[in-house]
Queue: 4 jobs
Job 1
Amino acid sequence: MARLTKKQKEAVAKIDKSKFYSLSEASALIKEISNAKFDASVDIAIRLGVDPKKANQMVRGVVSLPHGTGKDIKVLALVTPDKEQEAKDAGADFVGLNEYLDKIKGGWTDVDVIITMPSVMGKLGPLGRVLGPRGLMPNPKTGTVTMEVGKAVSDVKKGKIDFKVDKFGIIHAAIGKASFDLAKLIDNANELLTTIVKLKPAASKGTYMESVFMSSTMSPSVRIDEKSI
């Protein structure tokens, strides 16, 4: 078992493991104990009372964080020539089609989000083995397959994220940076959590939101009282 550093021990000592914190308390505490030498990402992990193996209990969606993620999201727009300028004007980092399809075939995936058009999706099918495991395959449900390419690029750049419950019934999402003002962290976290609450499947019985934890890169986690959400 790895030994904790002095700063890590101090951080752990500030957390009352027997306490469920309110969203505002947890956000303030995470800011206080985040002592990485870089601007740490603040993340939330939500365990849901669903069975992801059942299609009628799958939880996935998109949310626009009011204050963005604090991360410079690299966007690839795989579009036909008539949509290239629209994608560039909206801020896409990479714009094109065949040349980028060839790069992806060669293993290149140095982007965070891929946005494309319905007519191009057929060309992406063979690349599923490369894009799927990395969570990069565009999907109409998340707004990344659309004719409104400019809007899609702009939304992602401003802080629109997609989330999906994993095979363990947990949703992981970044909601900002430790350097964010407390109010901005709370706003972002609240926007994500309330969106997930609204997506409760009708087939889900019993407790829906079983546990919520907030943490930052390299920090211990803080449990949030799900009843306060």
Job 2
Amino acid sequence: MSLGRREQFFIVITTFNRCDYLAELLESVAALSPAPDGVIVVDNASTDGTADVVGQATARLAALPTAVPVLMHQLAENVGGSGGFSAGVERALAEGAQWMWLMDDDVTTVPDAIGALGPWMDKYDAVVGRRYDAEGQPFFWQHKFNNFLGIHLPVAGDVFKDSDEFSTNVGCFEGMLVHADAVADVGLPDPRFFITWDDAIYGWLIALQRPVMYVNAFVLHKARAQRSIDLGIRHLNDSSDLSRFYVMRNRGLVAHYLRAHGKYNPAGFAVGTALTATKEILRLLAVEKTLRGTGKLWRGWRESRTILADTTWTPMPALKGDA
């Protein structure tokens, strides 16, 4: 990497029991040109062959003309994607990272991705590049967070028609690139989410202080195929009972963050929660062809009420000088 705004570029990967996908991702990382300055793999207490995959990748990346260190960050228990990225960002900062490219284990990188992101690294502290889906088609991701409803809504049309950058106010941990300065101001990703809403709120927090830019550069491929339906403005993918529970449960955390920043409207938030549940029921009916899973939505919503009633809750602290 060149010196200045683009130095100390680290990739932070969170993985759990998907060593085959992880192997594909790390193989693609080895083909990146320019290469990253380091790779951190946060292992959420996997029980498969993850350690062997990381060991093989460590040797392969160490043998490159310019060696790339791979650091295994082993967690004692599965703390979800949220906890994994929180630990990974903290580790990256400790290793001297200036940039952290956050990604799940079920994507692969485009060979020239780091160079493609470079022009925006010179201007912004939070960037999300574009992705191809598992079939090689552009994956829909263009949203803005609506404070009244407390949800992010899809933006219709071609957001890159007149410019190669689109100002958003949400993040995505499937390829979000963040600078240490942004992390210092908003703190680490909140591990209390476990999964779902964590990246949207992290991008929202950053956007309260500085631009978050979705850019017209394809930098990732989604490796995992998903069932989906085309809703015109966006696609609706399949999900899991775990995600269904947390998408409702974490509404309590979303509300707390809105409250902390003076943007919580109880009536609007209730409508947003109802819309969230409706979307999940539509997902069950139209994509997964079942209604089994609605109980998870109900249990998640009940737990969200308990979280919302917690008067001791505080947001993640800013790091400031600690970064």
Job 3
Amino acid sequence: MSRARSGAIAPQTVSNDDGADAASAVLRRHAEEQFAEELEALAKDDSRPRPPRWRLSPWAVTTYLLGGTLADGTPITPKYIGNRRLMEVAVATLATDRALLLLGVPGTAKSWVSEHIAAAIASDSTMLVQGTAGTSEEAIRYGWNYALLLAEGPSAKALVPSPMMRAMKEGKIARVEELTRIPADVQDTLITILSEKTLPIPELNGEVQAAKGFNLIATANNRDRGVNELSSALKRRFNTVVLPTPETAEEEVEIVRLRVESMGRALAIPSEPPGLEEIRRVVTVFRELRDGQTSDGKVKVKQPTGTMSTAEAISVVNQGLSLAAHFGDGVMRSADMASGLIGAVVKDPVQDRVVWLEYLETVVKERDGWKDLYRACREVV
């Protein structure tokens, strides 16, 4: 999935059989393609010092993440809404010999931030290893073309480089998603890479040394089942930045609004963008169940077993838009949101159902202007 590029990063336009551009047919473009114009404008405007092989300076990378307006009036859309200092620390870490670990509960934009940082620094966010319980050492180090291996024995031609190896050779940013989902013995494969900046290839009596510009961004959370703790030796190779849940309701509403609009365009959902009040109601439900109390602090509520993350709130609104578009009049209403809300809250059919019903009766039913949401949710439960 690697695309080694420099300079402008306009998406490729290979035509398919129907004559349409392949770029426009892709469901989700990589960050460096989707925001190519912004990255190009930042590169032209950026006169600050850049680390070796970085396309942008650390200041420009942070501006790309948080948004702003350039001297020529070009607007940069925010990719992350939150504490600026956290992003500055994350970007500055990658300019050192330390790797970056983005830590937080599910749905706090760890993968999103990881992708956009890699896109801004290296114009390539695809050097990715997806962590799962089945991730093997070969996914991090390298594999073999077994037909060539059997025919010719170990050789450079038979070796299949991993995204990590390619990032080391090309001086780019590698990404490891869900690091704590990877078995502990496989995690420790990273120790030599991060400490020595070298990947040994004992079968060829050789090694790959990391080129300048190489570094690693890993993401992890400690709320999932099946988490494998990092060894102390591996933890020491990372600088950890904890991404919190949005601090205020308005901040979370803006995050949901921006992502829903972006995804709605990408998915071509033929419905009107949801009003802020509808988004605010979804966000309020999520925040109150996440915090264990109503927004005014007057009523305590039980918390469900799920994380009630911002990412799930975005999914609820997107599902509501889809229902409104394809089975309604194109305007999202309470009935369109109800099933998504219940699906997000009720992960445990016994425990969470009790939590949700109690919240409906004690909070939603009694809140002014929420009777329509109460009725819609009661019909689905």
Job 4
Amino acid sequence: MEFFRKFVKVVYEFIEAFVISASVFVVVYLFLMQPHQVKGSSMFPTFKDQEYLLTDKITYKQRLPMFGDVIVFKAPVNENFDFIKRVIAIPGQTVMIKEGHVYVDGNMLDEFYLPAEYTTSPGQFLAEGEEFTVPDNTVMAFGDNRDHSSDSRDWGPVPNQNIVGRVFFRYWPTKVMGVVVNPIKK
């Protein structure tokens, strides 16, 4: 009988620890941060296919996305999928693609975080040489690998309500583990 009581106590403690752990995980996942896997090459060389990232869900409850932030958002064509892109322009700014370069508010972006040979082509939404003013509560988001990215050039601005959060940490593979910082932020 004593063995049975000890066994029941151990099982109870195990279940209690599991429920507490699961509850903490659910709260963190729903409200604080969420893991995401890079799928494809649209953010190369910044992120490579199959890397794992953590997305901060709190930052954009305190401030709006900023130029240079890497964000995760619900894909505009199918919201069951998440996209990872870089914020190129914020509300009120004008965006234009001209001769392979991105212009924001009439100034060519210095995209020093991209390889020099990368150029930016127009898309179905953002045509060559046409200025577009980013509406309120949206951002323009481009993949870093411009030739291999479906982004705001093709389907327009990303509504803020579709943004899951800001990428802040890469945790796999371990050789590139570390904090992801906005290269523009000083």
